[in-house]
Amino acid sequence: MIKYPARYEKEEKFYYCRFIDFPDASTQGETLEELKENARDALSLALGFELDHGYTIPEPTQEVGDDVIWVEPYPKIRRRMGHKKDCECPICRSIRGERDRKKVKVGLMIDSTLWDRVSRKAQEEGKKKIEIIESLLSAHL
Question: What is the pLDDT along the chain (141 residues), one digit of tens a residue?
């Protein structure tokens, strides 16, 4: 079972936590139990966002301390992370042909050295140059 660590602290009227591996994911609760429930929501939302956008999901950081809680995402998110049969991540949906992709025309200026590298890679792989550019952009965005 995958769990991610979050550091928490007690403030005046509530508990507050922030995930170590997802610094933008944080939540609070009036009690420690409410914090843990809210943390599961926050973690699942953060992971869902990462999966929806095709980002690489980090392995959980191994943290220790009295101020660390370990949070497990919801089953639906766990399945998506494991790319199970009905995975809904953009990559799996695209492979199954279920992902609608809207084509947008853009102007792109590329250094001639980089263009030569794209051309060589396209020729080596038997692909179009635009396919190489799209795959590179998808991998890094």
Answer: 688 999 999 998 999 999 999 989 999 999 999 999 999 999 999 999 998 888 888 888 888 899 999 999 988 888 778 755 566 655 556 555 665 556 666 677 778 888 888 899 999 999 888 888 888 877 765
Backbone angles phi, psi at 8, to 5 degrees: -125, 160
Assess whether 30 and 91 both reside in one domain.
yes
Q: 47 is in which domain, residue-wise?
A: 4-95
Q: What is the pTM of this model?
A: 0.57
Triad 115, 119, 121: Cα angle to 5°: 115
